[in-house]
Amino acid sequence: MLKNLLGDPNARKLKRFTPLITDINLLEQDLISLSDHDLKRKTYEFREKLDKVSSKKDQRNLLDELLPEAFAVVREASKRVLNMRHFDVQLVGGMVLHEGQIAEMKTGEGKTLVSTLPSYLNALTSEGVHIVTVNDYLARRDAEWMGQVHRFLGLSVGLIQQDMNPIQRKKNYSCDITYATNSELGFDYLRDNMAADISEVVQRNFNFCVIDEVDSILIDEARTPLIISGQVDRPQEKYRRAAKVVEDLIRAAETGKDGIDPEGDYEVDEKQRSCILTDEGFAKTEKLLNVNDLFDPKDPWAHFITNALKAKELFIKDVNYIIRNKEAVIVDEFTGRVMPGRRWSDGQHQAIEAKEDLDIQSETQTLASITYQNFFLLYPRLSGMTGTAKTEEVEFEKTYKLETTAIPTNRKISRQDWVDQVFKTEQAKWRAVAKETALIHREGRPVLVGTTSVEKSELLSSLLSEEEVPHNLLNAKPENVEREAEIVAQAGRLGAVTIATNMAGRGTDIILGGNSDYMARLKVKEILHPRLVKPEDGHSPPLPLQRNAQSDASGFKSGEKKTKNIDNKQKQLLRNIFPASLTEEADSELALLASNLVKEFGDRAISSIELDDLISTAAEKAPTEDQNIASLRSVINTIKNEYELVISQEEKTVREAGGLHVIGTERHESRRVDNQLRGRAGRQGDLGSTRFFLSLEDNLLRIFGGDRVAGLMNAFRVEEDMPIESGMLTRSLEGAQKKVETYYYDIRKQIFEYDEVMNNQRKAVYSERRRVLDGRELKLQVIGYGQRTMEEIVEAYVNEDLPPEEWDLTNLVSKVKEFIYLLADLKSEDLLGLNKNELKDFLKEQLRNAYDLKEAQVEQTHPGIMRQAERFFILQQLDTLWREHLQSMDSLRESVGLRGYGQKDPLIEYKNEGYDMFLDMMINMRRNVIYSMFMFQPAQKKVEA
Ligand code: ADP
Ligand code: MG
Description:
Blueprint: H1 2-6, H2 9-15, H3 18-32, H4 36-51, H5 56-81, H6 88-98, E1 102-104, H7 111-114, H8 116-123, E2 129-133, H9 136-145, H10 147-152, E3 157-159, H11 166-173, E4 177-181, H12 182-192, E5 208-212, H13 214-220, E6 226-232, H14 236-247, E7 266-269, E8 274-277, H15 279-289, H16 302-313, E9 321-324, E10 327-331, E11 338-339, H17 348-355, E12 363-370, H18 372-376, E13 381-386, H19 393-400, E14 404-406, E15 414-417, E16 421-423, H20 426-442, E17 447-451, H21 454-466, E18 472-474, H22 478-481, H23 484-490, E19 497-501, H24 516-532, H25 560-565, H26 568-573, H27 584-601, H28 608-619, H29 627-657, E20 660-664, H30 671-678, E21 687-695, H31 699-704, H32 706-715, H33 727-773, H34 778-797, H35 809-819, H36 836-861, H37 865-899, H38 906-935
Parallel strand pairs: 1-13, 1-14, 2-4, 2-5, 3-4, 5-13, 15-21, 16-21, 17-19, 17-20, 18-19, 20-21
Antiparallel strand pairs: 6-12, 7-8, 9-10, 10-11
Helix pairs in contact: 3-5, 4-5, 5-8, 6-8, 14-16, 14-17, 16-17, 20-21, 23-24, 24-27, 24-28, 24-29, 27-29, 28-29, 33-37, 33-38, 34-35, 34-36, 34-38, 37-38
The structure holds adenosine-5'-diphosphate and magnesium ion.
């Protein structure tokens, strides 16, 4: 009601933009007639205007003023380079981003293109714009794809990739617009703040940032802070023994309700993700280890045992981690992606390595860390886009001060969300999933099934093979990841069945009928790879999903050997996706190209990445002088057109059959993640449908459903294979999901609140460091440290309540001499008659004189060395003490958590004590630096005889 009276607030927000849209559409008419050169000139005109304003506020106002024309210019450029004209709703999306808000735009609405608008506009100030994506592949894709528009208009475009060195990074960060992932940005920030020299710093000051898939980054990933760590030594043998011992321990059946002690050695709390030994468990473990006390400080075991238990019960192979190259690699539970290089902290990872009998890597110590929350808040202006933000609106607002605006779709949505089917057992559910998949597949529609773990996707895979349904697996396993782009490019084809672990492949578009552009690129790569790429290069080409060697007329039997290794049963599972053969024309063009390239680069002479680069550059439309690129481009186009023929026919058939069907196999931890999955169907007004299959045994219901759901389990006497329909069940389900959402929100809030305390300290330390790196007035800084130390000494020894003759001047003087040996002549008599302030002033002056003296002495033999020494000592002290401080803050956090029982708010305790600890740390830093400076004696220069 109220909504109707006042008007929908979202609609009101959108309405503000209407006049601007009209302006942009009008401007379009003028721009159409401009030559490419004149269109590009617009960039210089805008920049000239911006150069004339100096204050931030004026600059912002001018940007707002320039918006309509700048957007019109980008749209025109995009038409010319990408053949895409921004839809009006995309313009609105761009405006919302420019205002520093979140634009909610459904999957397939073209968010990638939307980001070109605010990024161009904000890059005009030359202060840098960051476009953030969830993975390296997307960063690269977008930089190449959208970068064309910006480069066409005369802006520089940079890209950050995981394997880049600092020099490459610096170059890319200095571009007008830089594409990067959240983790690269965050780690570069931390590394920059550990740099020993300004030349090692790669990032510029932050300015404006657009985050793609913003919920994924600011919500899902916000649970794990970014940490850079160094190594410490811990006894590895203990991990192994602990892993052995817990094998013999027995899990208690269910947590002892009603005060009855459970039988067994330990209890598991899945919700809290913790394991606790029972009294019997303690006794048994001590016996097995042959020790008297697990908590013996000289030989502590408790922590190792707890970690080993958690590794046994809560960290599941192929769900929480996978084994790759004999290492346990974390799998992100939300995205299903592997996160190489990340490790669980506090010995947990080592416990898993022990369980899996892998090499146990040494334990690490935090050197620097930051949460994504505080990292992204460093940007003066932040914005984001995603298909699913509204459900998390409050969190965005509270944590990040980001407003969310829903942008209408370009065409009407015609996706149908079918009613959930709930089964009593998980088994029955999977059978039903396989059945529906098979059914829809036979109708010729493509099907995408989302699962929550590698294990479950493999279970479904075997069920589908029984039904003789060919399908592809898209999950975190390394052999599948390599083919991710390839599988997604085909996922919309006639009757294609794709099983994806959660949101693997997120951000890549499933096009009905298939993505001819991608297929062409992959085909070319497949053919060129074995001839051009160094054999020792780790990256193998994507294994063709199925290539019938006989009917492949390409002449290159690259896939042949590999295909032979696949046994027949497995072969059935793989879907034949590429049209088996190319036309003769395409084929001979490819053959010619291959031999030309071999002549040019040499047989097997380039790396896999270089080949990728070649192919992507060729797939762009930017004009080229390079002969190789030109002929590569021509081949790609020939093959693409060929695929296009097949695909356009297929697309029609797929559309007639009803488009993509998406199946969810479990409710996720938030409604948003469910919506992401559903959103893959029905893009750009396409036909499509979705359905979720659930069971009472699903984790969500088991852990968060409460007693009501447990009761339901028994109450239903229906047959297993019959779906249950019950209002009470639906409500319990929603209730459980809301509970989980709140639970995780609370966790994130807590992480954020605790990191907030650190945040100000981190900022202070980092800015102090930065001053040193910039070499700004180092001497003044050190003298400042000294003066504060003098003040502190006076405060410690002078009690103004006592008469001056009782002040302990003798000790005061010897304390001063401890720091400044150059003041050896200072006597306590010199201080008589001075009041407290005069004392301070006097000592400060003494200090300054002594420092000048020190400088004169030292520089006599080593000119210029004082500044270097100042720099060195400040950095050394600041870094060492800060690192120790990080450890202390960690322990403090643990201990306030325990103290929480006594009516005190642990967060407030943490804040207060943390603040005191920080002050102490800074005091120590200043004292150590001033002490070191006075003690500093440069080595005598060798005297040449
Ligand atoms: P999203 O990230 O919103 O899910 P994408 O950016 O991946 O969507 O774009 C989806 C598809 O829509 C892409 O294939 C893109 O080429 C196409 N597209 C986007 N905007 C336009 C446009 N204005 N005109 C034509 N095609 C477009
Ligand atoms: Mg996208």
